[in-house]
Design brief:
Largest sheet: none
Strand content: under 5%
Oligomer: single chain
Number of helices: 7
Order of helices and strands: HHHHHHH
Shape: elongated
Structural class: mainly alpha
Length: 197
Amino acid sequence: MSRRVIAGLVLAALAAGPLTGCGGAGDAGPGGMPGATGSAVSAKPRAKAGKETVAWAGRVCDALSGGLTKSPPPKIDPKDVAESERAIAAYMTGMAKRLGTVRTRLAEVGPPPVPTGQALLTGMGGDLKAVQGQLLAAASGLRETKAGTPAFRTAQGNAGKAMRRLGGYQPPTRALRADLSLGDAFTRAAPCREGGV
C-alpha cells in the first residue's frame, strides 16, 4: 500500500470522526432525513415542543450518551502495510458496532410523541442499519483485497463513502435534531446539552 493510499484512507476516517462529518446531498435517506444520509433544508420554522416531547428528547440523550464515544483515528505506519490495513478496518468495524448500540437504544426509548414519530424512528433505525452494514462491508473489503489491485481501489472508495455516511451520525441525535417537530425539544432538554449527543 503506497503512502498516498494510506493517507487517503486516514483522511476519510478523520473526516467522519467525532468532531466533523457530513453526508452528500445526493445521499438522502428515508423521509429526506439528514445525518448519515445528507442534509434536508426547509424554510419552515421549528414547532415549539410540548413537555412530553421535551421529556422524550431527554430520554434519548440519556440513552445515547455513550453510544458513539470519541474514537481515536487508526494508527497508521507507512512502513507496516498489513498493520495499517488492519487498523483502518478495525476502526470501521468498531464504529459499526457503536452504531448498532445507538440503534438498539433508540428502539428501547421508543418513538417520539409526534404524529410522524413512528415513521421517524423506523426510518432512522433502517438508515443506521444500512450505514452499519456499509461500514462492515468496507472493512471486510480492505482486509480481503490486495493493495494496488482494482478490487482494492473499489474497497478504498467504499470505505470513503462509508466514512462520510458515518459522519452524519456525529452526534448520534443529529438527524432527529433537524426534524422540525423535534428540534426544539432537543434544544430545551437538559441531557441534550451535554457534548457528544
